[in-house]
Amino acid sequence: MCEGKRVALLAFLPRCMPENRRPILHVNFYYPFGEIGKRIREEWEEKDNVCVKDETTFILKHIGQDMEVTCDKKGNPEPLVSMLETQILDCVPYELIDFELDYTCEYTNEVNIKLRVYQEECRSEMDIKQKLIDPQADEPEEVEMEVEPEPSIHLRVPKRVTDQMIGAISSRKIHADRFSVLVNALGFSTKDFGRFVSDNISSAGSRKGYAGTKKLLTRWRNRTDEADQRPELREAFKRSNLPDLTKRYLQVKDDFYD
Description:
Blueprint: E1 5-14, E2 24-30, H1 36-46, E3 49-60, E4 67-73, E5 80-84, E6 95-100, E7 110-119, E8 122-131, H2 163-170, H3 176-185, H4 190-202, H5 211-222, H6 226-239, H7 243-249
Antiparallel strand pairs: 1-2, 1-3, 2-6, 4-5, 4-7, 7-8
Helix pairs in contact: 2-5, 3-4, 4-5
């Protein structure tokens, strides 16, 4: 029998399929007290996201022991996996885990996934199904007109900040004073800074790099348009006095695909 502390989750997806066809599933974990769930829902709905999984509760057996969260997308050979650091729930109103879903090779806007949470024998799983709106569906039908042909234009496709780049940057130690400026420059709060620093301390020496830096950059990347990612991160490094990272990973000449 699974006994422990009751935890709740709410999950959200963007209302419309993004242009890059990589919608982000936002999964929020919290203790189901008061109006926390209501506040979480209002925050995400203001960002044009829809709730795809109403408040669902499950049992957390050990506070202080990580819980595995997996997102299994239909058609994917392997599930996406993330870890929830459960002790954080005692310090913050809620904790967020994001999963980036890839629909770049699919024509459907139907999201069909299975979300699972594990901690020893305490397990729970739930299905999430949602059809994202096609942003082009409501555009007025264009009337064909004969026009003079224009000279061909070479479109420049911006490069995004990749997982590989985030992993490489996360392997570098950033001193606390500069890291504080970086967190602020990327739009996060002082409370977030404390959590990221705690993650960095606990993961110091890990082959996977500094977990706080990786979490900071991933959360920022997932909410930033691709065309703005490299310029914004370069400006944040400049404000944080991190010229070595700019020179190594974010030279202007590399912002676009040839």
